[in-house]
Amino acid sequence: MKREPLKGEMMSEKMISASAPAKIIIFGEHFVVYGAHALAAAIDRYITVTASHNTSDEFFVYGRLVRADHIFNAIDRITKGRHVKLIARSQVPNGAGLGSSAALSLASTIAVSKLFNIKPDPSLLFEVSMNAEKYIHGNPSGVDVATSLYGGFVLFKKDELIKVSSPIIKFLIVDSRQRRKTGNLVSKVKNFMDRNPELFNSLVNLADLMAKEGAAAISEEKIEQVASYMNVSQSFLELIGASTPKIDTIISSLKGKVLGAKITGAGGGGCIIAIPMTGSMPKIGYTVNAGVVGAYQLNYGIPISWHFDG
Ligand code: PMV
Questions:
Q1: Is 44 in the active site?
Q2: Quick one: DSSP state of residue 33?
Q3: Cα 185 to Cα 175: distance, rounded to the nearest angstrom
Q4: Contact call for residues 247 and 176 (beta carbons, < 8 A)
Q5: Which atom of ligand 1 is the closest one to the Cα of 28?
Q6: 203-254 tens-digit pLDDT
Q7: How much distance in Å is there from the Cα of 146 to the middle of ligand 1?
Q8: pTM for the whole thing?
Q9: Per the residue annotation, which of 57, 69, 144, 309 is the catalytic one?
Q10: Could you give the domains of the chain?
Q11: Rounded to a whole number, what is the distance in angstroms from the first to the last CA of the chain?
């Protein structure tokens, strides 16, 4: 059946669509901001943005005109003052730790680059999307954008990205439905660090080690080890103030049904990731495939080198 166009979809000659996957952070959120490695993976939930030429800058989400100054400011590097209409469709909840803002910035950047026939270059796409992220998060580590762009499982440290070879792994996602802003949680964790510098420094070192050993465990499919590191990682996140009573309740209710469970992303609500026991699937949440291809291969189909110079 033919779909009626959404408001904002009329009046375009050339329309270019691009998609970017959401992500989960398996180890190292928050600590990655202070130099630790994080292990993250692209998941099969996507944001798609359609770009077309326009007489002013407009951003539509499901037919609703919304402000997206951070995106228009960042993509100006590509549009160079020329106006575009962007229309977004999303399978990713906002403010839930799944990297929706990074995927939105990246899908917008790719769609606009293709609209203006800019040669695909992963470092340019990374840089432009990071500029959009900086407008809203202040000092992002880059793990969200890098994972959405490069895909698969990635061991990420500021300015360094290593591909972790692993088959696709299923994770359970449970959404606490508490929404929050990443920047507020990053500030809260900074306050914790300022009050407890030595303790925080030790946690950064341990988180770094867990991300690296966790990455090796993922590639060797040692799922029980990954799950037990996830439980330890959750206790670190509780200690630094990234959990909430609701998250703690959900995680307790999962005991005996999953091997490991933790916050993914900034916390303060948002989503929990868990590894279910074989054959059992708790009735809350949904499963995603982690380790899918990133936005670059998805939209350009070009294999990328894993050297990361963002
Ligand atoms: O924005 P989220 O919830 O996907 O999480 C971002 C991860 C943090 O480590 C908390 C922040 C960062 O910039 O790495």
A1: no
A2: G
A3: 17
A4: yes
A5: 9
A6: 999 999 999 999 999 999 999 999 999 999 999 999 999 999 999 999 999 9
A7: 12
A8: 0.92
A9: 144
A10: 15-165+292-300 (3.30.230.10), 169-290 (3.30.70.890)
A11: 44
